[in-house]
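chain below, 261 aa
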Amino acid sequence: MRGRGYETVKVAAEIAVPIAIVVIWELWARSADSQFWPPPSKIVQEFNDLWVFEQFRSDVVPSLMRILLGFGIGSAIGVAIGVPLGMSLWARKFAMPHIEYWRAMPPPALLPISVLLLHSIGNLQKVSFIAFFCIFPVLLNTIDGIRALDPTLVDTARAYGIPAHERIRRIVLPAAFPQISAGMRISLSLAVIIMVVAEYFSSTSGVGYVLLISKNTFQLGPMWAAIVLIGVIGYVLNLAYLLAERRMLAWHRGWRAATPQ
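prediction:
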């Protein structure tokens, strides 16, 4: 009963705190009457007018497609590169300085180069840009997950004559997948951020583009509505990934629960 009461209080706090913040913001904004800080009720009205009906297909859908494509491509490349690097000490020693160099590069610094190299401000440039930065969390977590694998498992499988691709598919990837999944979750959040950066500086559509136009034309209502939408997109995508991860890693949680601590 005590545990159930704690969970009830926890859920109530998670709901009450955002509501309290919104109420305080509403009251303060109405009393301050500042054009730069519109009340949440006005932002919600702008959000409803702008995104629910008028510009959902023209701006929200392209942004979501860029996020999902960039995230999917970046995650696949991260796993594909991370597996051999995680299994080979010499390959890892050679590659890590290059990985750390590009991982530390700020996204805005590479944006002009991506536009020049791809000769476009269309989807190819933005999806490639998102995918590039989504690679690194998945790549590093894949390497660490494989390095944490007990070498005895791989050596035993090799001794029984199991082919290398089967060892990777049946032993290496399942053992490293919990950590790979953690990297993918980070990459998904990063994809939302990079999407905004790419659309803000090199786009003619999307949520980031609307944010830029609203800021430049001092349309503060649509600007705040775009900011709220970006947060909603990040929250919903993270929630969807957590639900999918719960199903994908059900075997892992069951194994840990059955393992003596």
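The CA atoms of residues 251 and 257 lie 10 Å apart. The radius of gyration is 23 Å.
thats it, cya
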